[in-house]
Write a structure and sequence with these properties.
Strand content: under 5%
Radius of gyration: 47 Å
Largest sheet: none
Order of helices and strands: HHHHH
């Protein structure tokens, strides 16, 4: 019966209890720490402090009497300390870079959406301007109206002159 249960894919396995619990940590807090650490390692003050640390280490172990010096000439312990520092720094810097990359992706997506909205707005405004141009093309302009009024006025003046010649009252006493 147990074999039948294991072979079926639609039934979940029984949960196993872990002998040793994994440590719980807040990934956001750890990420912020990694970013701050990576920012500090990229500064001139870090380089200054690291240079002073190594210089002090070398000077102390060279100038100190034999019983006090803890790292003799090949400075194996210093090499180990610098390797340990580098082995911790590299993953923290990578974590900070990954977090920055995620933020950059979010910003890029927001920029893409804003560009899309701006493009749609520009297309709408272009259509509106085109429709206004078309409607303005159908509207009479001031110069056109003036020219039409002038031609009508000239036409009326011509008509008045023609009618005035035909219906001129005769001067009194001409009969």
């Amino acid at each position: 019966m147990a074999e039948q249960r294991r072979s079926r894919l639609d039934t979940p396995r029984e949960a196993r209890r872990q002998l040793v619990r994994r440590p719980a940590y807040d990934s956001e807090t750890f990420g912020v720490f990694a970013e701050q650490f990576a920012r500090f390692m990229g500064t001139a003050s870090f380089l200054f402090y690291m240079t002073m640390f190594v210089a002090f280490w070398l000077a102390f172990n060279v100038a100190a009497p034999g019983g006090i010096a803890f790292d003799d000439y090949p400075f194996i312990f210093l090499t180990l300390m610098l390797s340990l520092q580098a082995s911790y720094a590299a993953p923290l810097i990578l974590l900070a870079q990954n977090r920055q990359e995620q933020r950059d992706k979010v910003i890029a997506e927001q920029d893409r959406q804003a560009n899309s909205r701006a493009h749609a707005d520009m297309e709408f405004l272009a259509r509106e301007v085109a429709s206004l141009r078309m409607s303005v093309g159908e509207v009479a302009t001031r110069d056109f109206v003036r020219s039409e009024l002038r031609s009508l006025l000239a036409e009326l003046d011509d008509r008045d002159e023609r009618e005035g010649r035909d219906e001129r009252p005769e001067p009194p006493g001409s009969r």
